[in-house]
Amino acid sequence: MEKIIPFFKYRFVAYSLTVVLIIIFSLQTYRNGGFNWGIDFVGGAKITVKFQQGVDTAQIRKVLAHNAINATIQQVGKDEDNEYIIATKLTSRTENVEESTKALRTILQTNFNNAEVLSIETVGPAIGDFLKRSAGKLIALSIIIMTVYLAFRFELKYSVGAMVALIHDIILTVLFCGFANIEINIPILAAILTIYGYSVNDTIIIFDRVRENLQITTKQAFIDVIDKSITQTISRTLLTLLTTLFAVFALYMMGGEGLNEFATILLFGLSIGTFSSLYIASPFVMYWEKLTSKQS
Amino acid sequence: MSRGLIYKGIFIVCIILFAIILILPTVGKNTLRVVMSTTATQEDIQAVKLRFPESNYTITARENEFFIEGYNLNVAVMNEVKQYHGVVDAQLLPHWAEKALLAKKINLGLDLQGGSYLVLQANYHKIEEKTGKPLTNTEKNEITEQALELLRNRVDKFGVAEPSIRPKGNDAIEIQLPGVKDPEAVKKAIGTTGQVEYRLVDDVYTQKANQWLKQYYAGKALPEEQLELNKLADTLSNAIALPDTLELMFYYERHPQTGKLFAAYPMVLEKKVALAGSDISKAWVATDEYQQLAVHFNTTPEGAAKFAEVTSEKNQGRKLAIVIDDKVRSAPSIRVQINTGQAIIQGDFTHEEVTALARIIKEGALPVDLSIVEERTVGPTLGLDSIQSGVKAFVVGVTGIMLFMFVYYKFSGLIADFGLLLNGIFMLALLSWLGFTLTLPGIAGFILTMGMAVDANVLIYERIKEELRAGKTPRMAVTQGFSRAFWTIFDSNITTLLSAFVLSQFGTGPIKGFAVTLSIGIICSMFVALYITRFIFEMITSRGTLQKLSI
């Protein structure tokens, strides 16, 4: 028999790590002034502009402030490209996004020579509300669907265990967005839902092995079976994480502005997803087992 | 090799060939046919030739047509060339594989090829206010459907190729216009409802309103902002105690210098519509007796009766206002009764306005007010950058994964790498076949799935290793490894598929694209790992003489 790594023994180290992360992330999110919701969810406008050489953030900010426009300005791409994303969020629900975007555009073009508008996005408040609602619905829906599927393929305790790990991942990832001040927009939502699938995927591989090992040995203590199963699958778990991270890292380095934050979230979420499969999902099943066996 | 294996091999080779042919229209050369006008100057022709330099494209000319062959020819390029001076038409010729195998092209999303995306929200309140009862969902759907048809006509007039116009829920319409850089003109055309109404003017209250304005608003120009104007209309109506049957609107004039329309003075109209756009059967542009452009129209029989009634003796001397999109644009006095159902809309119109008006009357007004609630416009250069960085990330990511697999699993890693390449080809083929629209998140999904695709291989290989460690022969270990890993792979992939499915239910296009590439990637990788790489391993171990498996 191979050596079995006593994962379970170190579970409290893992729990404290989770708790510490949650505290740090929450505090930093609070210091950042809450979550940074993108215009997809709150409504507003986002303009990508290419300016002439010599224009910098301070200049743009000055011009906008002069016109009483509150906007976030962010340089994108290479320095010599001189491209900026200027985003304004809706201040009141009755504001006409269409009109204010037009105004913003005119201001930029009259104040800066040859300011070239590369892209414009405007989102009305109704769309934002709609997206927020459907995002919530989506997340709830996928949790239900997966719980049912896993309960059908495995047992309820595994299914609930996988979901607890999942919720752990989502909470941490969303808090990470607040921590790193990453704007929560639609691509980020897609990244979170991908982490979803991936995290469950990892958990299942381990549970699948637990189920298999339980069939072979009935005498072993449940803890040992779990440790053994994790040990047997750990190389696979880490290898897949590694290959996926290769792809995500390439996206992070080379995917350009559009995909940078998307990749950051994936990098964080996929790693945390693997971690939670080992330390949240499995111990949960363990505790559940303990509780129910005591009762019976 | 057994006969079964040979058949399997032939089947696999066929599938691979089929997949390669399917992606030809997307990655291979395409042909663009450009038809020049007979009056096109040498410069016009030169401009087209300059757009397609000979180093990248081959151009064959035939009479007044050019056939341009090369890579990267897509709808956006086609729309761009259409705008060139002297170009009558441009179209992409179907690739031979498209004709032969019903293959389609992977289209680039607006974020990659540039273009405009608009969402128009229908405002049913006005209709509900008029009818006094809320609309049911079926009614709303009907109205949206009508609006959709009209919008399609209006957008078609702009010569934008392959626009996509479809309903979004039952109260919004989504429009995608590839290659359109500045959507202002299109927005103007689709944003106006084009509602035309004839309504009688109430002179007494009109005078009251103007007097009030002179007294309390003296010297000031009326506000330009629609919101401000609406507020003013409300205060005015209250101040002069407007009865319920009347409505205060503004008469619009054209600024002599800027040519812009502006609200000149208030005018009080009867709420009752004397003649609506729907009462008109035919409209055309012609000059009137003063050689001014005007819209001539014929009414329907019912319309004729209504018109005769409103122009009858009792109303003679009164003004009949022509209201277009809630703006009073003309208010001639009624002099004679019109029984024929033929009339003219006269006023201070530009040539463009008159043609637009005639067209709108002909097509009918939009059945509901539409306002733009979401707009995303991407310029073509930004899109090109995104594609380039996406391709770069793809190449680097995949190379990294392949190197890693080779280093870690030696020869078996090479088999997995081969599978990964096949996986990429299959994904492209399926996406082409579906005529998929690739967006930036779609590219991300593609790259991500390449990373996840080797997961199945890793699972199988780890299993085989375990079996080998347990002392099994390579052949046994391979068979056991594959069959034992099967359900694990199945279960774990199904959950990812489930979340991708839920994701695809999310309305917006880019996310759908991401979900679809993710799903297709999972399906392809399962097929490749569980069928094709398994076949290769079976082939290698089929002799039974293999002592050691390089894994």
Protein described:
The complex is a heterodimer of chains A (296) and B (551). With 296 residues, chain A is α+β, with helices and mostly antiparallel strands. Chain A has helices spanning 11-31, 39-42, 57-66, 97-111, 125-153, 156-179, 186-216, 222-254, 257-295; strands spanning 44-50, 72-76, 83-89, 116-123. Chain A has two domains: 7-37 and 127-295, Multidrug efflux transporter AcrB transmembrane domain (Multidrug efflux transporter AcrB transmembrane fold), CATH 1.20.1640; 44-123, Alpha-Beta Plaits (2-Layer Sandwich), CATH 3.30.70. Chain A has a four-stranded antiparallel sheet. In chain A, α5 runs antiparallel to α6, α6 runs antiparallel to α7 and α7 runs antiparallel to α8 (222-254). The longest helix of chain A is centred in the C-terminal third of the chain and has 39 residues, at 257-295. The model of chain A has no long low-confidence stretch (mean pLDDT 85). Chain B has four domains: 3-22 and 381-541, Multidrug efflux transporter AcrB transmembrane fold (Up-down Bundle); 29-94, Alpha-Beta Plaits (2-Layer Sandwich), CATH 3.30.70; 115-193, Alpha-Beta Plaits, CATH 3.30.70.3400; 223-351, 2-Layer Sandwich (Gyrase A, domain 2), CATH 3.30.1360. The two termini of chain B are 22 Å apart. In chain B, a hairpin with a 6-residue loop joins β10 (246-254) and β11 (261-270). In chain B, the strands form six sheets. A four-stranded antiparallel sheet of chain B has the order 2-3-1-4, covered by helices on one side. In chain B, strands 7-8-6-18 form a four-stranded antiparallel sheet. With 551 residues, chain B is of the alpha+beta class. In chain B, α1 packs antiparallel against α16, α13 packs across α16 and α14 runs parallel beside α16 (509-541). Chain B is built from 16 helices and 19 strands. Classes of the chains: A alpha+beta (296), B alpha+beta (551).
